[in-house]
């Protein structure tokens, strides 16, 4: 049961990370029913729901055409940057925007977003993290959560990795850092 001292952090459940998107996470859409279930649990217990999104300008440094490792994705104001239409975010969710500056890469929902301060000001002690991709932005968010002193758990059913091997390495790293892995 989640309570008012908990936060559910949903990472980047956006159209471009779905199987038909520009940077697809295999079975990314299969995580959504679990995420929605956790949103309902959070609502019943009064926990904060936060959702991060990549919101990149077209000239973002992470894009291959700009010398980065990724294809163009989640360009702000496009359909690809929108949350998946099946994601049942509550009306009062906390929106966390990242990657919205051309020259700044932000994998973690905590990286220069003010999220940690907002959580602490609300008395949040525990965070539960899920989303896409497990081995990239979910991992970065979890590792920052632990580093920032939050009791941190990863919701595996609500997360998907770019590939199985990378996902397992990410799980091992998060567990070693002190995160609980909820199978």
Topology:
Layout: E1 6-11, H1 32-45, E2 48-54, E3 94-98, H2 115-121, E4 126-132, H3 134-147, E5 151-160, H4 164-177, E6 180-182
Parallel strand pairs: 1-2, 1-4, 2-3, 4-5, 5-6
Helix pairs in contact: 3-4
The end-to-end distance, rounded to whole angstroms, is 16 Å
Q: Helix count, per DSSP?
A: 4
Fourth CATH level, the homologous superfamily: Isochorismatase-like
Level of helix content? 25-40%
Biggest β-sheet: strands ordered side by side in the sheet: 3-2-1-4-5-6
Mean pLDDT: 97
Q: Report the uncertain regions.
A: none
Order of SSEs, N→C?
EHEEHEHEHE
Please give the number of β-strands: 6
Content-based structural category: alpha/beta
* Beta-strand share of residues: 15-25%
State the CATH topology. Answer: Rossmann fold
| 3D shape | globular
Q: What is the CATH top level name?
A: Alpha Beta
Summed up, what is this model?
The protein is 27% helix and 21% strand. The protein is of the alpha/beta class and 183 residues long.
Describe this entry's structure for a reader.
It is a single chain. The chain has a 6-stranded parallel beta sheet with strand order 3-2-1-4-5-6, with helices on both faces. The chain is α/β, with parallel strands linked by helices and 183 residues long. Helix 3 runs parallel beside helix 4 (164-177). 46% of the residues are buried. The mean pLDDT is 97. The chain has helices spanning 32-45, 115-121, 134-147, 164-177; strands at residues 6-11, 48-54, 94-98, 126-132, 151-160, 180-182.
